[in-house]
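Lay summary. Proteins are chains of building blocks that fold into shapes, and those shapes determine what they do. In this project we predict the shape from the chain. Here is one chain we studied, written as its sequence of building blocks.
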Amino acid sequence: MEPTSSAVSVGAGSLAGMELNRTLLAADGELDDTSTVTWVQGAQWYCDVRRPADFVAPTAGCLADLDRADLHALARQQGFAGRLVDGHVAGTRGSHVVWSHEVDLHPDTPADAGVLELAGPDIVHERGVHADYLEHWRIVGRGEAREWQLVDPHTGARGVLVVVGNRFGWARGRADGFRGALTDAIDAAVSDDDARALFDCEVCIGTVRGPAGAAWTVTMSTLPFREGAQLGPLLGESTVTVTDFDPNGQEVRRNWAVCDSQSTRSTP
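And here is the predicted shape, written in a compact code that computers can read:
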């Protein structure tokens, strides 16, 4: 895709402390202006959840109640989280940025890199580097950014927590390190439990409300039965504890070790 006239190229740091909604995707000769896509960007770490307009959430109330048709429905979503850096930091050449995918519902996603252009006070255009696409983003929120890079000390699963103003992104990776094609793996799974285990991960977006940010409500999740639930984080210097559900829908508290954390104010 050609650069947008009068747009100004910007680096990864220019988006720190922002929430963005995608308004347009142009790729493969097709346009998508109906999908719901939200990107919460911290100082470096981010969460991104994407859902097609015709997505119908399964009615199951927990992971254990999903059948394979439900799992294929969930696989129509995208959700990933990681670190956004300038290309030279990631070891590549060119004036582009690179998104690492530390957590990804679809772990076979190809390398993710793009050129970012500020096309207006609240408009960002993204042009693909490894794929020919154009995305239009609208900045819908700015605020102080806080972020935590996390690891489960027992399983090694990766976690990312990003807060921008009163919005948050949360990502919990798989414990088994699965790296294949998700839809193929659903069909190839020996048992339904093995198929469900592929979805024992989450990327979600939510809102922080109440006195001293007491309520952290999930509003959009790759596990739709989690929507409306409370994340309830306890934020320590070396550990972060959050509320989650086990596969049978029972509430559990998960403890995560902090690998890195920081905060920053957004660019005006």
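What the prediction tells us: The helical segments are 68-74, 182-188, 192-197.
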